[in-house]
Amino acid sequence: VNRRWQPGVKEYLQAALCYKQGSRVYTCCPIEKSVSFQSEGAGSDCQTPRQSPGRCMNIRKCSELLDLLVKREQTEYLKASLCGFENRDPKVCCPIGSNMEQPQTQPQPMDRSGELPGRDVCGLSDFPNNRVVNGQPAVLGSWPWMVALGYRSPKKPLDWLCGGSLISDRYVVTAAHCITNIGSRTMYVARLGDLNLDDKVADRASPIDVPVERAIAHENYNSALHTVDIGLVKLKNRVQYSNFIRPICLPASKTFGSDLTGYSPFVVGWGATSYRGPASMALQE
């Protein structure tokens, strides 16, 4: 060992020498007698200076002996535990059952996609609230959280049958009946930032289509009573916000469940403008 050691440490490590393999030297590291293990090859088993079973390993992985080295205590015992070298690091006979260092796994980065946006991001529109109601065409960008959900079937490659509201960069809230009992249809795409779903109409919109990864209906949805008619759609890709694509805010805890009698809500969508009438391709409010 070409470094300065406390008196006796070098001799102690040399005494714990197990064997040498090429440029590598192995030392003996203690183990509890009650713990059994299988030998991993010549030199992996050893006996500590206290006559207990050990495993020969890099001293950096044997916290018990590493502490002695750092604290410069029990140098004779440390020397007697030397069982080789790994590059320039001594290997020691580490007692089985002691705090042997476990392989460190690199933590996976958290996926922040899908998190609900803050109030400084959601529910914002570049247009004032003095909108015309009763099924009139909406203005481009006035409802940036509106999403059209597209379906395909063996008979029709694309059919815009439902709408939803963007609540984050990965999730859309929609009705449960748009997810269940849809026959041979499959919800496969979500269109954001659009005004008129007819591609031939020049409405100055620049919509984007995002594949649907998964659609989940609420577990308590009752199709017969039409109760708890709500579902969640997960998009395959994250959405970049803009003036024409922005999430809506979900109710805050103090607002959720409050009495909204007397308030005037807006209803927006591409649905029918009259009872049992045809659906509108232009976004209505």
UniProtKB/TrEMBL annotation:
GO terms for molecular function: serine-type endopeptidase activity. The keyword Signal applies. One of its GO terms (biological process) is proteolysis. CDD domains: Tryp_SPc. Residues 45-94 form the Clip domain. One of its GO terms (cellular component) is extracellular region. Its main location: secreted. Signal peptide: none annotated. Keywords: Disulfide bond, Glycoprotein, Hydrolase, Protease, Secreted, Serine protease, Signal, Zymogen. It holds the Pfam family Trypsin. It comes from the Eukaryota. It is found in: Secreted. Transmembrane segments: none annotated. Residues 132-285 form the Peptidase S1 domain. PROSITE patterns: CLIP, TRYPSIN_DOM, TRYPSIN_HIS. InterPro entries: CLIP (IPR022700), CLIP_sf (IPR038565), Peptidase_S1_PA (IPR009003), Peptidase_S1_PA_chymotrypsin (IPR043504), Peptidase_S1A (IPR001314), Trypsin_dom (IPR001254), TRYPSIN_HIS (IPR018114). Its EC number is 3.4.21.-. The clip domain consists of 35-55 residues which are 'knitted' together usually by 3 conserved disulfide bonds forming a clip-like compact structure. Belongs to the peptidase S1 family. CLIP subfamily. This is CLIP domain-containing serine protease. It comes from Graphocephala atropunctata.
